[in-house]
Amino acid sequence: MPGVLIVEDDQALRDMLREALEKRKYTVITASDGREAMAKFRPTVIDLVITDLLMPEEDGLSVIMNIKQVKPSTKIIAISGGGKAGPGSYLHIALKLGADHVFSKPFLPSELLRKVREMLG
Amino acid sequence: MITVINRDYVYVKVNKTFCLNHKLIADRIVGQKLEDLWGKENFISGIKDNIDRCFSGHMVYYQAFFETPAWGKRYFEVFMKPLSGRENEVTHILAETYDITELKLREQAASDLEWEFKNLESNLPIGFFRSDDNGRLLNVNRAFLKIMEATTESDVTGHLLGDYYTNKELFKEHIDILRNQNKAAFGRIDMLTAQYNKIVCRVSAFVVRDGSGKLIYIDGAIEDFTHEADLEKKLQQAQKMDTIGLLAGGIAHDFNTILTTIYGYCELALEGTEQPSETYQNIRKIVQAVGRARSLTGQILTFSRQVGQERISVPVKEIMQETISFIRPKETGNIVLKEEILAPDMYVSADPTQLFRVFINLASNAIQAMESTGGILTVILDRRSGDEVRAQGHVKKAADEYALIRFSDTGPGMDETTAGRIFEPFFTAGKQGKGTGLGLSVVYGIIEEIDGEIIVSTRKDMGTTIDVLIPSVVSPLAGKETITSRASVLLIPEDDSEAKVISLALTNSGFAVESLNPEEEWLAKAGQADLVILFDRSPEIPSADLLLALSRGRVTTPVLVISEFDVWLNAEKELPSGLVKANLFRPVSLKEIIYSIDSLIHKSH
Questions:
Q1: Considering CB atoms only, which of B271, B306, B577 is closest to A83?
Q2: What is the sign, positive or negative, of the torsion defined by CA atoms of B487, B493, B498, B504?
Q3: Nearest residue to B397 via CA among B408, B405, B389, B409
């Protein structure tokens, strides 16, 4: 079964996403920040990374860059908090850095799941 | 200096002072002709006539400038007295001369100063006044009259300065303070001029006491600070909004995360529940509530300017026209809509969808205000020069020209307090329960972000006029946007105001846009386009059928559906899988649309 790595600092949201994905029989690994994400990322297991863009410690853009360096074929979905958080826009940059799709919170998890299914087959 | 002169204009007697001043001993002067001592010119022009007059029996007094080798130019005061001999005819004259050069210079300086002061006084907008110890005005200058909008000094003198104060108690306090402290400055005094106009003034005054210490006068200056007071208020308001925005924006951000979690568990719960059951319905209600919360956080993020608009050159006329055609159906029998496009080619740098939203909001508010009474809503598009607007103290920024979009209604108007607060988030002027009170704060946020200003003029029972001023930009040159660099987009349907605005926005962003109604050839066109955009408007979901048609026709073009968030649940269930699709919920911004398009197209290539 395809593996998904979820990188999200909010615990409730992280748990909800894990539950939703595990229900659909995906293998799920979770991390609460960028550093933990890179430590837990196993290229042979993970096919898709879902990452929040704004987190303390290491932000989502770094996660995207790093994952793409380690295993460029990894699919990436970025999640943003719905606001502009600095000069320029994270959404646009995320796409430029290699994210395959971006969702703005609050998004419908069913939409996310459909996207995941699309990406992983 | 004293001298005695005879009929031959010769010095007969001179005193010591005279000698000292001429630096000659008496012997050298006595017997000398006046003209030899003073120079012929001085003698003829200044002295001789006076001497002759004195010799004819008159006392003479005169002042004159004399220039001598010894002293240069000096000013003298001369007294001449005829001296009679034994037979009572005048034989000699006695001349007393005083050097008044210093005095004259001081007089001149004082006169210059007085003149300068008078000049300053009448040119500076500072009103001066003198009053008695009770504050009853005795003298005022022209500037005072101007500030108080009075015509002559007599209109004003005799009145108490306090008569112009809005708060008479405050005046009494001020007089007391002056009596105790001898001088004081008072800022922010609300006053009413002689023409009953409200002004805000600053008064500084000091007391004048006589020899016994008794207070005889209060002298002071008054300045009109109305403009500054106004600007200060505006600044405070803007700062308040910024603070609220920052706070709210931060919270909204975290809220969005929580809302996503709630959504997710609701969906999970729905999966495990039977369709027509009560539980199912209850959960759906939760999802709908979350949707409203989402809309709220979206608005908060917009007014706190934390979202960032995607700006392009927007032809304002087009947006205004779409606003009017959107609003027109809402015109009830007793409300008339008038449109005046006085500057048809104004362009501004903004997100057309946001501008549309702003205009719809302002127009709707006006219509709502006239709901019960009926009336006329006039919408005007015009231009204003930067100087014109700055002269009225309206704009803080420095653009050369502004687009003016005016919404003027003949409704009940607002009182001053309400008018000052309408852009405050969560402040509602209307009845409770009508909207969340965020609408106008969002309008404010959007306009602020594009360096615009909103000016409200209103009076109770006299209607309201809201002016939106946005810096204008030069219209994009034809051919500047290379359409081939971006994708082709098909919009369905075409006769919808929102669709037209989005079509305009995408065209000006470099997309090749086509709009049509889903009739004959639409499937074929959909197949050729890079992306299809569909519009749902609650409670109808035309997209459901259209998506089915696309799926059956084996059209694989990605689809973007713009809809009301509360209908998605129904639509989702019946959809065939395999469609590459994304949903955007209103209100949508150009930025969101472009991202969705980019990621949908990017995905499928």
A1: B306
A2: positive
A3: B389
**B252 chain-A contacts, CB cut-off 8 A:** 82-83
CB proximity list for B279: less than 8 A, separation 6 or greater: B269, B273
Average pLDDT over residues B83-90: 86
Helix (H) or strand (E) holding B347: strand B347-350
CB pairs under 8 A between A and B: 93
Cβ separation A82–B252 shorter than 8 A: yes
Rounded Cα distance, B507 and B295, in Å: 27
Tell me the CA distances in angstroms from B99 to B23, B32, B61, B105, B437, one per residue in order.
15, 21, 14, 12, 84
Nearest C-alpha of chain B: how many angstroms from A60? 15
Q: Return d(Cα B54, Cα B94) in angstroms, integer.
A: 9
Q: Residue B122 above 70 pLDDT?
A: yes
Work out the pLDDT band at B576, boundaries 50, 70, 90: low
Structure tokens at B374: 């009926």
Measured distance CA(A95)–CA(A76) in Å, rounded: 9
| B206 pLDDT more than 80 | yes
Cβ of B264 within 8 Å of Cβ of A101? The answer is no
User: CB contact, 8 Å: B226 with chain A?
Assistant: no
B323/B217 Cα distance (integer angstroms): 64
Please compute the mean of the pLDDT values over residues B203-207 and round it to a whole number: 94
Q: Which two tokens stand for residue B181?
A: 């402290």
Task: Tell me the residues of chain A between 10 and 39 that have a Cβ less than 8 Å away from chain B.
Answer: 10, 12-13, 16-17, 19-20, 23
Residues of B in contact with A105 (CB under 8 A): 256-257, 259-260
Specify whether the CB–CB gap between B312 and B349 falls below 8 A.
yes
Note the pTM of the prediction, 2 decimals.
0.64
Q: Please name the amino acid found at residue B372.
A: S
Asked if B190 and B198 touch (Cβ cutoff 8 Å), the reply is yes
Strands A27-31 vs A46-52: parallel, antiparallel or unpaired: unpaired
Look at B591 and A101 and tell me if their CB atoms are within 8 Å: no
Query: What residues are paired with B285 via a beta bridge?
Result: none
Residue B489 Cα distances to A65, B286, B533, B562, angstroms = 31, 35, 7, 14
Q: Which of B249, B261, B603 sits opposite A16 (nearest CB)?
A: B261
Mean pLDDT of chain B: 84
Mutation site, B257, B287, B303, B579, interface A, largest A CB count within 10 A: B257
Pairwise CA distance, residues B312 & B21, whole Å: 88
